[in-house]
Structures are given as structure tokens and as C-alpha cells.
Amino acid sequence: MKYTFTLAALLPAVTVLAAPTPPGIPTATAARTALAALTVSTNADDGLYERDLFPTWITIEGTCNTREYVLKRDGTSVTVGTDCYPTSGTWTSPYDGGKWTAPSDVDIDHMVPLKNAWISGANKWTTAKRQQFANDVTRPQLWAVTDNVNQSKSDKSPDSWKPPLASFYCVYARSWIQVKSYWALSITTAEKSALTTMLNTC
């Protein structure tokens, strides 16, 4: 009996590891259920929003503040100094696929922007609760992304801004919904429609 072996069969399987992502991203099914339960209303912009009303960055772990913590969490081969600031590493921005080796090229984006939170319910919170929201590393609220992409997003919701990579729409929508759901923030009709469309890519 003759046996034929291909080179591929003799080589070990190679696993391609995805870039690290924040914790707490729900399944598409769970996200759809959560989206249906969110309060739909008009955003209430009272004109009083100021970024300082959401204190950042606080000490999260050891000497690491929130930004440093996320850079360490979401990068690959990251080394840090005694002050926790990265001295080397690589960061892949899930929004646009950009790869960076300088921490200064990376922003920490709030999935649900602080102003959007303010106009969808956070204006009624205490400063202490807003600080918790702005430094939430337990849910998919903080992302290491390309700085100019973060600036392009600014305080926009999914009906007026989407990540450059359409392949990320599914994760983006699931993460946005999870944050709004946990923090009991409202969404607009347009926002819900955009999130539904993005979930349909899952």
C-alpha cells in the first residue's frame, strides 16, 4: 500500500493570535437582547458637559493609571518601566488595523464617548460614578486605537461614525451595547437603527 504525504500535513498547525481585546464583550445574541431592552429617547444636551466631570486617568493597578493599564493589557510584547509607562511593545488598532510601536501614536478611546454618556443619562450621576465610567476596565469601554481615528470619532455615536474597518462593526456594536446596557444609558432611534445594522454583520 502506498502512502502519500504532503508537506502541509507534516508541518505543525500555526495559530494566528488576534490582538488582545477588552473583557466583557457579549455574544451577538446577548447584544440583541440587551439592545431591545435599552431605553430609547432623545439625547438631552443641557450644554453643561465638561470632560473634567469624568475624572481620568486614575490609578488602577500598582503604579499603573488607566491609560497605562490599557496599553499594557491590549498591546503585545509590552514592557514597562517602574512608572508603568510602556518602554516597548506593539499595538494593533482594531478600528482601522493600524500597527504602532510608539505609545504616543495610540489613544485610549472610550467606546461610549464621555459626552455621549452625559447626554444619555450621565448628567444625573455623581462625579464618583462618572469617574468609574471613565475608567471602566471591566467592560469593553476602553480601547487602544490609532490616535487620529479616535479624534475622528470624537463624541459621535454609531449613527454618525463607524470604524474604518467594516469587519469590526460586529464587535463594535456588541461592545457599545454592553456599555450602554450596564450603565443604563439611553439610545436614540437613529443610534438603535445603526447598531441593529452593525449587528447584522455578525
UniProtKB/TrEMBL annotation:
It holds the Pfam family GmrSD_C. Residues 1-18 form the signal peptide. It comes from the Eukaryota. Keywords: Signal. Residues 103-197 form the GmrSD restriction endonucleases C-terminal domain. Transmembrane segments: none annotated. The keyword Signal applies. This is GmrSD restriction endonucleases C-terminal domain-containing protein. It comes from Xylaria hypoxylon.
